[in-house]
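Researcher: Next entry in the queue.
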Amino acid sequence: MKQEIKVYNNSQTPADKEICDLLARTIDNELTKAECKIWHSHPVWFIDGNPIVGFSKQKKGIRLMFWSGADFGEENLNVLGEKFKDASIFYNNTSEINIKDLKQWLEKAEKIQWDYKNLVKRKGKLEKLK
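Model: Structure for this entry, 130 residues:
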């Protein structure tokens, strides 16, 4: 796990740190070609400069967000973005994380991508990459 992601995870409560560590390890193991960094104050993984998946601490818990998740067809990713193609799920305990589902979502995240990298250049218009 990259040092800056460890620092972020270590800044969480013990229960939230466990969730963040499990998510980061799983994402790192599944998205081996992705680059990760702290982006807008939370961990995000990118493929070719395009944001794919990330997580952040919010009032409802740790939010795992997939930038193109609305097109995954996954009912458990039930928090859909209103303006873009993102979808999320919240976790408050590691026991809530279904690793099989998470791996499936990460596989879809590689295959289904909207071009967020060039969103500003296209004046807010999303185009499908994959």
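Model: The mean pLDDT is 89.
Researcher: Noted, moving on.
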